[in-house]
């Protein structure tokens, strides 16, 4: 569904990602993991057109999308749940969700809104409340709901579990898995590596702007380097 090759993005003279190759097969969950500053958010923002990569190709459903405007990429079926959620705190829950569908002209927006409310009943209860009054977990649900309102074929999530209590984190991972099982392909950036590798089919490890390892998620989870750096598993002397 998504084939990235040689993707490079810089901030001025700072090369944040340096020639990334990554594939997301249709129907899968692909997890992108890496330490702070590795370039995960830069990768996500480059995919959805918020950043302009200097080099490389981004093929989405067979079409080259590098350089397209963000709203065109949304229209093709890719939407991002951004790092830090970025919901509009001064707008209601309902308005935030409607924002997610602002590019759509089809007649099924209301049906999709009902679907989001079925998935997240708390959002329906609070639909007239301002986004900023929601708890962290509810704001994350709102951010996911807003992205779903664009009816994505590929959903990108940038650290959806960040800053959430453990029980809420489990809920979010469950929701991600359900969304995938219902047919949406997912690219997931996570700091919660153990849980991300558990739900993912494939995983990529990013270090200082380069992919250093990739493969089936269960194999990446067994890799000694990954265990030591991200899972706190292997001992230094073994
Ligand atoms: N707006 C910016 N201007 C300049 N440099 C930036 C900017 N945003 C990110 N960087 C740099 O680019 C590199 C990659 O940052 P990025 O935010 O993509 O990492 P990340 O893997 O998402 O990290 P985190 O886990 O902290 O979210 C870092 O060295 C960072 O300091
Ligand atoms: Mg980031």
TrEMBL record:
Determine if ATP-binding is one of this entry's keywords: yes
- Where do the coiled-coil regions begin and end? none
User: Cell inner membrane: present as a keyword of the record?
Assistant: no
- UniProt xrefs under InterPro entries: AAA+_ATPase, ABC_branched_ATPase_LivF/BraG, ABC_transporter-like_ATP-bd, ABC_transporter-like_CS, BCA_ABC_TP_C, BCAA_Transport_ATP-bd_LivF, P-loop_NTPase
Tell me which residues make up the ABC transporter domain.
2-233
One MF term in GO for this entry? ATP binding
Keywords assigned by UniProt? Answer: Amino-acid transport, ATP-binding, Nucleotide-binding, Transport
Q: Name one GO biological process term.
A: L-amino acid transport
Please report which protein family the annotation says this sequence is part of: Belongs to the ABC transporter superfamily.
- State what protein this is by name: Branched-chain amino acid transport system ATP-binding protein
Species per Swiss-Prot/TrEMBL record: Desulfosporosinus lacus DSM 15449
Species lineage, top-down?
A: Bacteria, Bacillati, Bacillota, Clostridia, Eubacteriales
């Amino acid at each position: 569904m998504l084939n990235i090759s040689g993707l490079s993005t810089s901030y001025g003279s700072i090369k944040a990602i340096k020639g990334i190759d990554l594939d997301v097969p249709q129907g899968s969950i692909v997890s992108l993991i890496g330490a702070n500053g590795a370039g995960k958010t830069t990768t996500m923002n480059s995919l959805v057109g918020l950043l302009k990569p200097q080099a490389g190709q981004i093929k989405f459903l067979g079409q080259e999308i590098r350089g397209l405007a963000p709203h065109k990429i949304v229209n093709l079926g890719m939407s991002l749940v951004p790092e830090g959620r970025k919901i509009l705190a001064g707008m209601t829950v309902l308005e935030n969700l409607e924002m997610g569908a602002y590019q759509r002209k089809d007649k099924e927006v209301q049906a999709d809104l009902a679907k989001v409310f079925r998935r997240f009943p708390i959002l329906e209860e609070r639909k007239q409340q301002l986004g900023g009054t929601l708890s962290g977990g509810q704001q994350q649900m709102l951010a996911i709901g807003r992205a779903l309102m664009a009816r994505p074929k590929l959903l990108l999530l940038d650290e959806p579990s960040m800053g959430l209590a453990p029980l809420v984190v489990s809920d979010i991972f469950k929701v991600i898995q359900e969304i995938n099982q219902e047919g949406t392909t997912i690219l997931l950036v996570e700091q919660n590596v153990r849980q991300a590798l558990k739900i993912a089919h494939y995983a990529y490890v990013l270090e200082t702007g380069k992919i250093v390892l990739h493969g089936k998620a269960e194999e990446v989870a067994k890799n000694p380097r990954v265990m030591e750096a991200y899972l706190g598993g292997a001992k230094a002397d073994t």
